[in-house]
Amino acid sequence: MLPADPRTLGATVTEGGANFAIWSNAADAVELCLFNEINGSLVETRFAMSHRNGPIWHGYLAGVRPGQRYGYRIYGPWAPEHGVRFNAAKLLIDPYTHQLAGDLSYVPEIYGHVATDSTGAGDLNLRDDRDSAAYVPHSVVTNFQPRAIERPLISWSQMIIYEAHVQGLTAKNLEIPEHERGTYKALGHPSTIAHLKSIGITALELLPIAASLTEPAIHNRGRRNYWGYNSIAFSAPNPNYASTSDPISELQWAVDQLHSAGIEVILDVVYNHTAEGGVGGPTLSYKGIDNKGYYRHDGHGNYVDVTGCGNTFAASNPHSVRQIVDSLRWWIEVIGVDGFRFDLTTALYTSDSAFNSSLMSAIGADSVLRNFKMIAEPWDVTRYSLGDFPHPWREWNDVYRDSVRQFWLGDLERGFGEGVSDIASSVSGSSSIFYYRGPTSSINFIAAHDGFTLHDMVTYNVKNNLPNGEANADGSDSNRSWNVGVEGESQNLDIASIRHRLKKSMLATLMLSSGVPMLNMGDEVSRTQNGSNNAYSLPLSFSQESSETFNGGWALPWDLSNESADILATVQTLSQIRKTYLADVASEFFTGIVDQGTKRKDIAWFSLGGREMTDNHWADGEKRSITVFVEADPTRGLLILMNSSTAETVFTLPDQQWGETFRCIFDASKDVATYEPVIAMPRAKISLPHHSSQVWLVSRTR
Predict the structure, then answer these.
(1) What SUPFAM superfamilies does the record point to (predicted)?
(2) Share of the chain above pLDDT 70, in %
(3) Average pLDDT estimate for 252-279
(4) Would you say residue 331 lies in a domain?
(5) Can you tell me the distance from the alpha carbon of 382 to that of 346, in angstroms, rounded to the nearest whole number?
(6) Considering only CA atoms, which of 618, 624, 622 is closest in space to residue 647?
(7) Contact 390, 363 (CB under 8 A)
(8) pLDDT of residue 219
């Protein structure tokens, strides 16, 4: 091999061949392995990469074109007690590959140590000499360049995010050709886009689409990792989500279709760990390239695991920072995405704060990345850092989630409350958490991929994760849910009615709070996971839905019952209300200060008597109702009535200082399709059913 350009890592196509470059600081030698089909079988040809610039091994090979399958074999010492696990018998995935070919076979040969079964049981200290090339995915040479992209460029104040799984979003959509359902192609289908647009979505946040693998222990239970939080190639689209043999082009097309409809695309990215698991996991890439360089270790050769997944990627190391930055730019410049949600973001730095993190600093300093949306999940299994990220980062706000659930459900389940201060703080933008950064720093949600769906949190008190095969030990036991007195589905009409009102009221709270709302896929149509709050796995294969597939809850239902259709209409109505009256005033924190021109506040809280709340009201731990007024513009405002008590409650509307007429534009206790708005005058008495909410449009001429 001739010398290559060591400045660009990965496989780079040139006019006459391809440059190859890989980072390994501690290796003794590196071989590039090409795989070509001859007489129906893959034949491996090895090339020594003898050229080295510091830790970067590189070489140019003439004649290599896009589509070439390849991998690496890395030579070096085997010293597991020091965290060193080189094994040239194992074919390794290029960390910079943009496409993978072939599936992982769960056999002993995929492990660097001598394993005796598919899960890796065996002697962790003894190096295995069996070749893994026939059992692991191969890297593929591609030649996709940065491209011109027409982006919607939506401001944070206008954002409504929809979190979804590529397969689950469209798998049951009969308007899409069968072979395209559950694929990248289906994301751009007119019916998919029409549904998202109908509920006001401005950004589709996809669960991980980088190539991922199922953990051997899960595969051994006859299941696969459905969610995909187990990446093996950070910058390669998962080929299992493609309807064609070209996942990159297919994904680019889908992104362009969404952009044309005014919808941005945000990727959930997992840079905190890889699919190689703990020290007993398979050797597929980083573990064999430079184990100590790519994973965090203690002083005894053991992994430091702050992710709960067996390893922690050493994302603060310079070469890792470079790789992550390069990966993010590839997804932006080549695929066309508009932002990222970082899984377990605090695991990506070892410093005491995100403010002095090397990776956060590199992202903020990059001339491209700093212009795109960045969202943190501000915790890992050892650290909790909500509010600790620098502007312009946004953060998943679990305090918001917990306060909304507690107000509407948790207090009822436990039999006592603690007043309304927490729900008021969350609805108004969580200023006590985000201070100067503004309310759009808060990604508000009441449900996400992990946890109960909206339907299940009013149907179950206890999780049901038995299908995962972990004896129901997985998933959180703290759900702040309330089953309304009966565990599971119920034919009791009174219970069904309360549950329905609760779902609509919680959606109203979410959609009309200050901050950036995020909907969990299917909550707009009452999707259920059969009581699972950790539906991360599915059977390796299945032909019909059953309890093992959470009764189909892994996918969005498109055939709706009357109740589900009303929930859908609720979200459609609420998103329009938000867009019309709140989006323009939600970019800054409310002040609660009286405007000297209008003599009104931009936000105000009222007691049941229609007067502004006093300190005594705020201190009342038994208070189960609250009214909030938000000034939309000089002539209009919104008044939101929330009653989480067990009894019908009479609310008094504010006086004429706040509005001359009041018009109820949403009532959680009424069917949206047939609801006729009610007009009322200042100081009118309004009876609000238990576990319900209303939204009033306040109008005035002054």
Answers:
(1) (Trans)glycosidases (SSF51445), E set domains (SSF81296), Glycosyl hydrolase domain (SSF51011)
(2) 100
(3) 98
(4) no
(5) 9
(6) 624
(7) no
(8) 98
Residue 682 lies in a domain: yes
Residue 7, C-beta contacts closer than 8 angstroms, at least 6 positions apart: none
Q: Is 673 exposed, middle or buried (0-12, 13-18, 19+ CB in 10 A)?
A: exposed
d(CA 450, CA 398): 12
How many Cα neighbours within 13 Å face the side chain of 329? 18
Q: How many domains does the chain have?
A: 2
Name the token pair of 583: 């989006």
Active site residues: 343, 377
Among candidate residues 88, 123, 140, the one where a domain is terminated: 140
* pLDDT of 272 strictly over 80: yes
> Does the structure show a pLDDT above 80 at 702?
no
Burial status of residue 593 (CB atoms within 10 A of its CB: 0-12, 13-18, 19 or more): exposed
- The SS3 assignment for 263 reads coil
Q: What are phi and psi of 639, to 5 degrees?
A: -125, 120
Question: Before 318, cis peptide (omega within 30)?
Answer: no
Both structure tokens of 351: 């410093």
Give the count of beta carbons closer than 10 Å to the beta carbon of residue 684.
14
The beta strands (E) that lie in 524-600 are given as 537-539
Calpha distance 147→334 (Å, rounded): 6
The answer to whether position 574 is within a domain reads no
Measure the CA–CA gap between 7 and 29, rounded to whole angstroms.
Answer: 19
* H or E segment and range at residue 140: strand 138-140
d(CA 309, CA 277): 6
Single residue among 114, 140, 166 that ends a domain in this structure = 140
Residue 332 lies in a domain: no
Name the band, by pLDDT with cuts 50, 70 and 90, for residue 301. confident
Q: Rounded to the nearest 5°, which phi and psi values hold at 162?
A: -125, 115
Q: Are 629 and 621 in contact (CB under 8 A)?
A: no
CB hemisphere CA count around 472 (13 angstroms) = 7
pLDDT bin (cut points 50, 70, 90) of residue 40 is confident
Residue 596 has pLDDT above 90, yes or no: no
Q: What is the CATH number of the domain that holds 663?
A: 2.60.40.1180
Q: What is the pTM of this model?
A: 0.97
Q: Is residue 147 within 8 Å of 336, Cβ to Cβ?
A: yes
Domain of 23 in residue numbering reads as: 10-140
